[in-house]
Specification:
About 70% of the residues lie in helices and about 0% in strands. By secondary structure, it is mainly alpha-helical.
C-alpha cells in the first residue's frame, strides 16, 4: 500500500532496490564469515587469553543476528522486486 505524495519528491522516484540487494548480500557474506571465525576463536580460546571466550562468543552472536537481519532484508527485497515486476511500476 502506497502513501499519497506529501512533499516535493519526483513522481517517478524509485527506491534503489538493486543497490540494497548488493549491500545486503555483501553484509550476509561478511557477517556469516565473522560469525564462524569468532565462534571458532571462542572455541579455541584458553582461560587466560585476551579477548576471552565469552567476549568472542558475544561478538559471534551479534554478527549472527546481523546476518539474520541481512537475510530478512533479502527476503523483503525479493518480494518487493517481484511485486514491481508484476505491476510494471
Amino acid at each position: 500500500m502506497r502513501r499519497p505524495r506529501t512533499g516535493t519528491e519526483p513522481v517517478t522516484a524509485r527506491s534503489p532496490l538493486r543497490l540494497r540487494l548488493i549491500l545486503a548480500s555483501a553484509a550476509l557474506v561478511v557477517f556469516t564469515a565473522a560469525t564462524v571465525r569468532l565462534a571458532m576463536g571462542a572455541h579455541s580460546a584458553g582461560p587466560h587469553d585476551s579477548p576471552s571466550a565469552t567476549v568472542l562468543l558475544v561478538l559471534a552472536v551479534v554478527c549472527g543476528v546481523l546476518a539474520l537481519a541481512a537475510i530478512l532484508d533479502l527476503v523483503v527485497l525479493r518480494r518487493r522486486m517481484r511485486s514491481q515486476r508484476t505491476t510494471g511500476a
